[in-house]
Amino acid sequence: MSYTEADTLIELDELLEEAIDTHVEHELVVFNDEVNTFDHVIETLIKVCKHSPEQAEQCTLLIHYKGKCTVKLGTFEFLKPMRNGICERGISAEIY
Question: pTM for the full model?
Fold first, then answer.
């Protein structure tokens, strides 16, 4: 099988997309629910996302009143363990 210039360009394009995706900032968003208490959400943000108590409280108020809040920015790989930790504590969170 011959390796064409088009094959090389496709491979380079795929590598570039992967490199860009690993450096793109994603958002970790936490959603409101009717189950978890303010204290539980605040404690989770402090432990999992390393928020200060004030930052965790402000995010929790935004989650409550706005329905959601971006609690952290970073690469997908950086945010994934935080998302998992938040979800393990019964709180809904997604990475965008």
Answer: 0.76
